[in-house]
Specification:
11 strands; seven-stranded mixed β-sheet; four-stranded antiparallel β-sheet
């Protein structure tokens, strides 16, 4: 059974840090690019970051550039999202996803949900001001 399980969410003060983890089971993570998305109630799911499964290239949404860092450990079948200098507007449910990309991450303009093959169940991140 294919599963992506996120962990590491929680409540943090503005300026703080969290590290999200995305653990895969039932499939080999290094066969896919992996992305992180987030969603707040009433809004569309937004692509935040992704990482290639071939050359390690990455994509970040403008809203998180310089604050978030994505990485992967294929031996552990896990992808991480380090989130630093968190802001209240980062509050959302964060989802990881296995992706089928058409271009390398560094050529992505907007990371869309149409690229998703598998979704995780999500983890809540709340940043207080």
């Amino acid at each position: 059974q294919v599963q992506l399980v996120e962990s590491g969410g929680g409540l943090v003060q503005s300026g703080g840090s969290l590290r999200l983890s995305c653990a895969a089971s039932g499939f080999t993570l290094d066969n896919y690019a992996i992305g992180w998305f987030r969603q707040v109630p009433g809004k569309e799911r937004e692509g935040v970051s992704c990482i290639s499964n071939s050359d390690g290239s990455t994509y970040y949404a403008d809203s998180v550039k310089g604050r978030f860092a994505i990485s992967r450990d294929n031996e552990k079948n896990t992808v991480y999202l380090q989130m630093d200098n968190l802001k209240p507007e980062d509050t959302a449910v964060y989802y990881c996803a296995a992706l089928r990309l058409r271009v390398p991450p560094h050529r992505i303009v907007v990371l869309g949900t149409n690229l998703v093959v598998y979704w995780g169940q999500g983890t809540q991140v709340t940043v207080s001001s």
